[in-house]
Amino acid sequence: FMISKMEDFEYKDLRYGDWCSNLDGWKSGEPYYTATLFVYFHLRNIIRAAEKLGVSCKYVSFCDQLKKNLYLKLYHKGSGIFGDGSQFSCAMAILLKIVEKQEADRLLEHMIDDIETSGYRLTGGILGVKYTIEVLMMYDRPDILWKALHRKDYPGYLHMIEGKNTLPEFW
Hints:
mainly alpha, 7 helices, two-stranded antiparallel ribbon
């Protein structure tokens, strides 16, 4: 279904983006390529499942082209930034291996610098923060994550759980 909604390897449903990101000035639907990244994410999983089951998958070629398109449209070689340079964008480019190892290392540095200069504030939304955490752990950076998770002010995990009995939408 989602592939049928794509035009030029971009999913055009822009309603949500990285929902409830606490980036200054965030608007619903930003970044605009969030849905396209998730189409790629799910296609990769479908292809992996097919490989493990020993069956062919009709999405391999489309997925390869989608990855290439994401790289060409969103990776800025000069600055070493992916998309808008947000923590979410960097994390997804690294996790989905849209960029090469050397480029991923550069994105990781940018992401960590952004976390540190914001006072260890994770700026991803409901969708994106999970992948920021995964990338930090994948690159053995629990020190950064520990400081971010122990923030008592907004946005922080301690702020989110102290005195609450449900997960707030705007964490």
